[in-house]
Every structure is written in structure tokens, then in C-alpha cells.
What does this fold into?
Amino acid sequence: MSKPKVAFFDFACCEGCQIEMTNYGAEPFLELLRHVDIVEFREAMTETTTEPIDIAFIEGSFTREADRARLMEIRKRAKTVIAYGQCACTGGINALKNHQTDYKQFVYGTDSDMPHLDSKKAYGVDHVIKVDYYAYGCPVNKYEVLQIVSHLLHGKEPVIPGYPVCVECKRRETVCRFDEGDYCMGMVARAGCGAPCPAAGIPCEACRGFVDEPNLPAFEKVLVERAGFTPQRAAEKGRMFTANALEAS
Amino acid sequence: MTSTVHIDVHHLTRVEGHGNIVVNVTDGVVETCEWQVPEAPRFFESMVRGRHYSEVGRITSRICGICAVGHTLASVKATEEALGIAISEQSRKLRELLKHAENADSHVLHAYILVAPDLAGAPSVFALVETMPDVVARALRLKRLCHEWGSLIGGRTTHPTTVVPGGMAEVPTDKQLEELKQKLVAAVPDVEATVETVVALAPNIPAFDRPTEYVALSNDENYAVYDGQVQSVLADGAKQRYRVADYRQVTNEFVVPQSTAKYTKNKLESYAAGALARFNNNDDMLVPEAKQAAEALGLRPICTNPYMNTVAQVVEVVHSVYDSLRLIDELLDAGVRLEPLAEPTKHGSGAQAVEVPRGILFHEYEYDAGGICHGGNCIIPTNQNHNNIQHDFDVLVPQLLEADKSEAEMELALSMLVRAYDPCISCSTHCLDVKFVR
It folds into this structure.
């Protein structure tokens, strides 16, 4: 039996999630190659393919119409599509500009009307095509990615946490950021990362997006009452990685 | 002489981000010879507006997945400059150790995974798994080591967590630093083998010289990666230093009339940033082991062959490993402890620079009294190199035609030239230059 064909594609992003693939070390990576054939991965290989693909990892956001056809073509060839990293899942950090109207003028000045600088609001790739599974995070949790691939190879449904990051902080006995005089988004942020940020002394910024039904009014109230935020800063706090969800709520 | 060539490399592979190479030669006349950058722009300088200073480094880290550490450091340093925050000696050393980890990490990735396949005549590292299994295993071992090295100090390597305005939010224990030291010492044979592999592949590095200006951070204490002034060196060895605050005098971003492309230049028509620029500016500050590696690899200042940038990167891997051993010893001698973060003492604007794998990186921000950001400017090394790559193309293409190279050979030579710069195109596209000929 031939090995499943896996390909990586990238859109507007920093490509850091692709880089995470190189951080496993020799054994896990070479083991992975024993189970799948990587047939296209522009950042690492010259070979490309027009053949059908079993698993397509798509990294990056949809930010311009010019990318629509390429996304649809990938969807047509791929049995399974995985949105790989937060930019592909929800628009990620790229959506932080979605509420602004003058971002092109601010960065490009008088050149901003040139057609190649076309950039609309940033969305996850499911704005254009159907996505089968989501590997959340900025960057992805590379061990969760291995687990997703492993589940798919075994014909099982990958399990993605729907509970908040607070659960993972409790599990690893991290002192709450609010008790340290800081703020945190952990209470409304999707877990699955292992909560490394509060453990490293910084707040969770919800880089895996919100839990399925975040209580945002209560979250803003906590930011104001316990972290001393102005109401405006509290209302805009969620924009960093969750701008599209904030807009939809 | 080759008289007709049509090269159209759409989305060059084995580089970070999206770039195209277009060369059209008809009857010996070069009609088009362009390095193009069609990456989707992302508008980071606009995104940081209205964000609190504590968030800005975490946002601009996301400019690049390979040099996320460098963007975080440049961003946090610029924020500290703007807000009058002075960090401790321990924080500075930890950040320098982190900077070394990133440079080594990225150089290993570039030399082994992006460049080595060209020198070994293979399309990708995956093809080398069968033919050069020891080399691939060594590459993955070194890559993992650098990842663990950076993660220990930075929390993680892709978008580090611990570097925050005022110092370090988390520090390693003495025991963890001891373990890192042992890992680095244990990796020395792999580092030496890397030099040997590149020595063996070096005859396949194209011979091409185009003297240009080389710009890098420089200081009088060490081979500058974290701190220093901006320094320029020309092929004749003439050096000049500039204050980082005056970086715009060096970068001189300008628009090319026929393309409205933003380029940078200083004394000549273009300049280069990156490992070769650092080596040409600061080779006398390398540790002895790195100087020996440079000697073995035939790298001498002022080297004007841009393909040798990868060789300079390998020399820097050696330097980063040994200089980090020194830093770890100094940190252990003093004893590492978690320190309170230094507080802002003023507000306003500030610019800072660090040396990221691909060269000198500038960040600048302006903050109000409430610590809210009103705008930023980031000038990225790849952006500074685009113009130099174009000028290399302009000289290289006629030489290749003269040497009777086939279209395929030319395409490979041009692709390898771009790869040698290790461009980080996602980074550079917040102020990108694009020329569409189709």
C-alpha cells in the first residue's frame, strides 16, 4: 500500500508553523516520513505536484481575491484539508487590521492604490473553502499536529480541546496572572497549547482563538475590575488573535 | 554566447516567502532581468497602532516565523528605548544567548535544508534522506539542539514568550544552564562535521564577485549580534559608523521610478546585510574557533562573492556555539535569578537594531503617556537585500550569457544566488517592492 500523500501550502503568514515541522528532532521527523510521503512543501523542497493529495496542510490567511482560485484548486485535489496554524484557522494576527480603514495608506503612503497592494480583511481559509480539521495556535502546537496526523492515519477523529486555557494552568499549577497583578485571556481562550505563556510569566493572548462560546461581557468586566483596564482597552483586548470572532459576537 | 533565454521561476522554492525570477533575453539583448516579490502584504506597522506597549513585541514577532526571536528583541529594545527602560546585565546576557540560538538555528536550517540540496545536486532535503542519511540526521540533531537552546531562554523559538519590556519574564535555573552548556559541548563534533561537509561541498559554490557595501551592527567588545552601532564597510576596507537612532540616514528608502519599488541604499547603488556583511565588518571579533573555521572554508574579508553568505553563516554557527559557552559561564558565575521588570521612565519614540540571521533589523515605535503605540517602522534585512540581489542579477546574467550557460543552468545559478541571501520575504513585505511584467 502506498503511503498517504501530504502537502503544505502557504498564504499570508510568517511561515513559522512550517518551521515548527523542523523542530521535532531527527527521530520523530524521520519516523513521520516512514508513514507519509511529503509531495509538496515549497519552503523546503523544489518538487511540486498536480496529483491528488491525501492531506493538505494550509498555512496563512485569505487576504486577497487573487488567492481564491489557488485555495479552491487545493481543495479540489485534497481528500482532507487541515487549516494549519491560527492565520489559516481564523485569520490570526492578520485580522488585527480588520477594523482599520487606513492601513494601506499608513504603510504605503501615496503608493497604496497600486493593484498589487490589494489586501482586504484577513480571514481563515474556511472563508473560501471547507476545512476538515483545525490545528490552532500561533504557532501550532507541533505535538498536537503529530497527534492529528496520527489519528487520521489510524482512521480516528482528532480530538481538539474546547475548554479554556485556565484548565491547563490549574493542571500545571501555574499561579494566575491576575494574582501577579497582570491580565490574562486564559478564561476565554481555547486550550491545547499546554499553557506555556502564563508559566513563562506572561499573559495568555488567546493565540488559539476563543473557546466555542466565550462569555465576552464577563471577560471585559474582569479586565476592568481586576486588571485596571479602561473599558475601551478591555473591549479591544481580544483583537490580537481573535478579531474576527470579536466582530461576529 | 547564449542568445535567447526565457526564465520564469514563479514562487521560488526553498526560500521563506514568495519570490519570482523573470529573465527574458532575445537575440542577445536582455529585455527583462528581475527579482520580484509578490508576497501578500500584512500591514504590521498599522496593526500596532492603539496597542499597549506590553503587546507590541508579541505582535511584531509574528512578522516572521524564522526570525521571530530577532523581531521580538528588536521590538522590545525599541520599546525600551522609547520608554526609557534600562534592563539589567543579566537580562542583556540572556537575550544575547537567545540571539545566538536563533542565528545558529536559522543558519543550520538554511545551510542544510535550503542550500545543501543545490550543492549536492538534489531537489530537496527529503531526497537526501536516502543518499546522505548521516548528514540529514546531523542536520535534524543540530536543528533540535538550537530549538532547545532558544526555547530554554526564550520560552519557545517560534514567537518567544519570555522577552518583555523591562527584562525577562522568566529565567532558566542554574541547573538548566549547566545542562545547556553540556549539550553545546556535546554538539561540537556535529558543528565541526558541518564545517567539514561545507568544505567538501564548497567547490560547487559558484565563483562570482560583485563588490558592494556591507552594513552590519558593530561594537568594540564582541562580534555584534545584540547591540552596537550601525557600521558600513566597502570592498577597500573603508569603515564608517552611525548611531542607531540615525538609521534612516543609512537605509535611505527610496522609490524606483519605473516600479515604485521601495529599496534601500547608502554609499553605493545598493548594499548587503547578513552573515557575509557581518563577517566583512567584524571578522576580527570572532572567537578563535570561528576564525579557524573561516580559514578552513577559505572565507577572508572583504569577501565580495554573495554565494559565500552561506559559508559565512556556517562560520557564525561555530562562533555562536563558543560565544554562548562564554556567556553561560559568566551567567553561572554571577548566579541567575528572576529579577523584577524595569519600569518606564518616559514616553516618546525610540529606534533600536539587532542582527537577525539575515542581517541588520531596525524597529522604531512611538508611545503616548499611557503606553499606547501610535505607530511603528520596521526595516527588515531582506528588504535591504532586495536591491542588492537585483544589482547582482544585472551583473550576473550577462556573465552567464557570455559563458554560454543553458537556460536551466542560468535558472539554477539565479535561484542559488537568491537562496544564498536566505531571503525572508514574509518579513520584507510590509514595505514590499513589486514589479509585475505579465
User: Anything to note?
Assistant: The CA atoms of residues 96 and 240 of chain A lie 6 Å apart. Chain A touches chain B through 62 residues (CB under 8 Å). Residues 5-153 of chain A form a domain with the Rossmann fold fold (CATH 3.40.50.700). Chain A has two domains: 5-153, 165-248.
